[in-house]
Amino acid sequence: MKKQNALIPYLRPVSDILLITPPFTQLNTPYPATAYLKGFLNTKNIATEQIDLGIEVILELFSQKRMTEIFARSQVQGKELSSNAKRIFALREEYLATVEPVIAFLQGKQPTLARQIASENFLPQASRFDQLSELDYAFGTMGHQDKAKHLATLYLEDLSDFIVECVDPDFGFSRYAERIGRSANSFDELYDKLQGPMTYVDEVTIEVLKAKLTPSEGNLSPTPLLQVSPPAQRTSEGSREAKGASENAPHFKGSTSNTSNARQPTELPDYQTTLACLSVPFPGNLYSAFRCAKWLKETYPGIKTAMGGGFANTELRSVNDARVFQFFDYITLDDGELPLELLHEHCSPKTSAAPAVPRLKPLLKRTFHLEDGEVIYNDFSLRRDYRMHETGTPDYTGLPLDRYISVIEIANPMHSLWSDGRWNKLTMAHGCYWGKCTFCDVSLDYIGNYQPVQATLLVDRMEELIAQTGENGFHFVDEAAPPALMRDLALEIIRRKLRLTWWTNIRFEKSFTPDLCRLLQASGCIAVSGGLEVASDRLLELIKKGVTVEQVARVTAAFTDAGIMVHSYLMYGYPTQTVQETVDSLEMVRQLFEAGTIQSGFWHQFALTAHSPVGLEPEAYGIIPHHQPIGFANNDVQFTDSTGIDHSRFSFGLKKSLFNYMHGMCFDYPLSEWFDFAVPKTTISPDYIAAALEYEDDSLSRKSARIIWLGGEPEVTDPGADQLEIRLFDRRDTDVVTFDEGRGAWLLSMLKRIGDRDQSLMTLAELRINYEAAFSDFEDFWYTEEMTLVRGYGLLVV
Predict the structure, then answer these.
(1) Residue 532 CB neighbour total at 10 angstroms
(2) 760 and 651 together in one domain
(3) What is the mean pLDDT of residues 760-786?
(4) Which residues pair with 432 in a beta bridge?
(5) Domain match, 512 and 642 both
(6) pLDDT at site 354
(7) How many domains does the chain have?
(8) 725 lies in the same domain as 681
(9) Among 692, 707, 729, where does a domain finish?
(10) What does the entry list under GO cellular component (predicted)?
């Protein structure tokens, strides 16, 4: 028997699966899908690597080398440039001299550059800088580092405008060729574009991907570690004839040095891959995903390609165009863990090399593929999906965490969270615990399948991620985090004495009391985002939102008073919405911002989706959908509203007013000022929100709520006359309260008991019973001035 070649030159384990995020998503932090999948596959001992092409391509584009090419290309397009583009081109040497220092600054590598940038004399300026009149006012609360980040962001946006006008009209920082991916009922346009020449961004993307995958010339072992598949006839999935892995399997270059933005050479091949999986979360990733898959199939004919992610989950549930599978062998739906595990088994060398048997369909999970040239939906596996507690901890290994760039598009601390800072991403609960909103895809798994994770396991995962990434900031990417689980999470963080920062998405429901918000803040929660949607009680009821405007005002005030920032998602154009309701909704929003209960927001026009209750029963909401034949994507559906109102007319005015409200400006402007057409006066009382914020404390009604003490250890003195003087401390203040000796001693013993993090939590009912065993009138005692002060120092009912 011939002796096998030694495998020593391969210093790293073989990677069976390559996970790719195509351009573009976020600039400041990785989109979490590949990290989630890698974490799960670790639990199955399946070797994986991941690439975030989004950040890799952005860093390549905004380099001196590529910007030199872009400026050169702009002169051979043969079209007249705008005055703004001409200005940028005239200042090209300034841009070439500053682009790499700016990127380094936004990566946190040159913090001292902030002072030069903030001086406004360092960066060349084009049209994006026209909005700077209120800059000093806006950054009075944010500081010169954030001001410099904002200016650097405007600088990059100027360059982006130049690229769009002169080189590649599809470019965008967080999306590419997004229009093609929106409601692409037919695959024709996307297919035709893929048959055409590559754009400049395509060329850069493929160069970056190629650099990651090209085998090293130093391959000392001719024997491949993995077979892609043996030489064979066309498979049952209709893929092209497979060749030996030595020809077809790409070696993946693991990350080397993160100290430079330049791609680094690799001395030895690290991985061979049998399955390349592209996660497509948004329409703005779709085209690039297909372009990358096309290159992979052409370059490595034996490799299998798969697509999953949010776009597939919502848009590709009815795909039937066989041409799609020229690019992707498989498209999986919903949670990717089990489908990917089964694909790995199906594509593995052992499976591919099995002796001939009567052909059976592979046992896959929620997977589209070709069978004899026809698209089939393969859900033949009887294995159950993994529960959230079985999916492992996300693994960011291989991603260049120190090379992401933090940007600030708007001078608003809450709004900047999405683009500024590196966040570890986790999920408290799969799906939505409410699951009733009529505009939402409640019929789909990502909403309808609710699975919470235990708080102890969540905090275990947080500690693992801190150790893995060195970052202690967390963004919980829930559809709507459950209040009870948020409480338990906060208590567990506090019990373990962790110091970290986190934020999440919520529903503005009454469970978020002032005390619960204070507990969340004490655990490190800095912000929440939630949907007010249409600020009209009639429409909120029609939406089945389960909240009222008054309730939203109280909940947002509770968060804000606790020091937690609030962002609200706002909607206009909901079916049957009148012009009057749109104006009144804007007035509600104006009052909420003026009252300081909301710091940030975003207006979007209602979009009808095929899988929402409105989409499934349009006649119940007074709309007529315009369905198209579906060969590819099916989600957004055009429709006619029975009101006949053109809601798009309101878009600019709503967004302009909100932009000013977020900067604390123009609250005294009449609402009609924001529109270039006549609108009715609001019917909302000018003090509606102020009145809603005046309500009585009902904490004693929550008998099963837990009692917790967050304050410092009290100091006791005895002033005599059968009294106890208790000095209270928190992080900022000190106060003294006086009780009679009996009640003072009781209070001190209770504070010691409920302040012990290792003790089980006492309920409010138990506290009341304990008090009334020695005294009477607990309610009168609870609402005394002294107890109100004690509660303010950290005695919480949660």
Answers:
(1) 25
(2) no
(3) 94
(4) 480
(5) yes
(6) 54
(7) 4
(8) no
(9) 692
(10) cytosol
Position with higher pLDDT, 431 vs 758: 431
Q: Do 361 and 235 contact (CB within 8 A), yes or no?
A: no
Domain that holds residue 776: 699-797
Give yes or no for residue 670 having a pLDDT over 50.
yes
Other beta carbons within 10 angstroms of residue 147's beta carbon come to: 22
Dist. CA 335–CA 283, nearest whole Å: 19
Residue 224 has pLDDT above 70, yes or no: no
As a whole number, mean pLDDT of residues 266-290 equals: 79
* Parallel, antiparallel or unpaired: strands 473-476 and 451-452: unpaired
Q: Give yes or no: residues 496 and 639 share one domain.
A: yes
Residue 612 is assigned to a structural domain of this protein: yes
**Is pLDDT above 50 for 12?**
no
Write the CATH number for 636. Answer: 3.80.30.20
Instruction: Calculate what percentage of the chain has a pLDDT beyond 70.
Output: 87
Write down the pLDDT at residue 133: 58
* Residues 749, 625 share a domain: no
pTM: 0.90
Is the Cα torsion angle 609, 615, 620, 623 positive or negative in sign? Answer: positive
Count CB atoms within 10 A of the CB of residue 28: 20
The residues near 299 (Cβ < 8 Å, ≥ 6 apart) are: 210, 213, 250
Please say whether the beta carbons of 617 and 645 come within 8 A.
no
* Model confidence at 298: pLDDT above 60: yes
Q: Under 8 Å CB-to-CB from 654, ≥6 apart: which residues?
A: 570, 572, 582, 586, 603, 674
Q: Are 279 and 309 in contact (CB under 8 A)?
A: yes
Same domain (yes/no): 345, 438: no
| 477-489: b (≥16 Cβ within 10 Å) or e | bbbbbbbebbbbb
- Are residues 623 and 575 in contact, defined by beta-carbon separation less than 8 angstroms? yes
Q: Provide the b/e sequence for 301-329 (b: ≥16 CB within 10 Å).
A: ebbbbbbbbbbbbbbbbbbebeebbbbbb
Question: How far apart, in whole angstroms, are the C-alpha atoms of residue 561 and residue 515?
Answer: 10
Phi, psi of 275 (to 5 degrees): -140, 120
Identify the domain boundary among 676, 692, 708: 692
The model's pLDDT over 583-638, given as tens digits with 9 standing for 90+, comes to 999 999 999 999 999 999 999 999 999 999 999 999 999 999 999 999 999 989 99
Average pLDDT of the residues of the chain = 89
Q: Is the domain of 269 the same as that of 293?
A: yes
Residues 83 and 232 in one domain: no
401 lies in some domain = no
pLDDT digits (tens, 9 = 90+) for 259-274: 344 433 333 234 457 8
Residue 393 lies in a domain: no
Over residues 432-458, mean pLDDT: 96
Residue 248, Cβ density class (10 Å: 0-12 exposed, 13-18 middle, ≥19 buried): buried
- The terminus-to-terminus CA distance of the chain in angstroms comes to 72
